[in-house]
Amino acid sequence: MKRSWLIVVTLALVLAMVGLCGCTAGNTTLGTIDLNSQQEGVWVSGEGKVTVTPDIATLNLGITAQAASVAEAQSQAAEAMNRVMTALTDNGVAKKDIQTQHFSIEQVTRWDEEKQQEVVVGYRVTNMVNAKIREIDRVGSIIDAVAAAGGDYTRINNLSFSVDDPTPYYEEARQKAVADALAKAEQLAELSEVKLGKPTYISEGIIYPVYPRAMYEAAVPAPAPTPISPGELELTLTVQVAYAILD
What we know:
Blueprint: H1 2-21, E1 42-52, E2 56-67, H2 70-90, E3 98-112, E4 117-133, H3 139-150, E5 154-162, H4 167-192, E6 195-207, E7 213-215, E8 233-246
Antiparallel strand pairs: 1-8, 2-4, 2-5, 3-4, 5-7, 6-8
């Protein structure tokens, strides 16, 4: 009898807990209010843009050598790369601004119709570096010097431009973005006939610029000086701000 009584009490407690939680098949807890999901006030986004002239050029360059053996390909590649590195440093590029990005030794194959399979015909050595050029007006002459030094082994993949220290430009863009957000909030408040309070939430985002690039495929020295124009960059910063509504 006592055992039956305990079972009945236990079952009643379980049913009571289920009723309080509001759990039914296929449902989660009911009657819960997530206050954090409610956005109160005036929410606006602002954008600030600053146009700057690049002061850094990054040149991705190197050499590719191909020969019948690995040793021969390595020797040709090493000699050509040494000449390229010398051309860079002789033209004012600091050693600390030259960084190896890619080095590989790979087989070169062709399809043999008689054997019906790929056969090795040689080996290719590739050595690529990124060179940061701080004297941006010398980019063209440095490209010419590298091409002459490396000869037919030279490979120049791309050239990109950037700003060495974008901090002051982003500070200016931030001021513009906040002013833009405030102007929008004030207009919304006026149109809605409410009084704008202080910001209760601020979030910042940066739209990273797509740096202009110049692509190169030719591996021979140019007969005339290479013309290079860095152009301009547009730095963009965004903010999202929530303003309180005063009673």
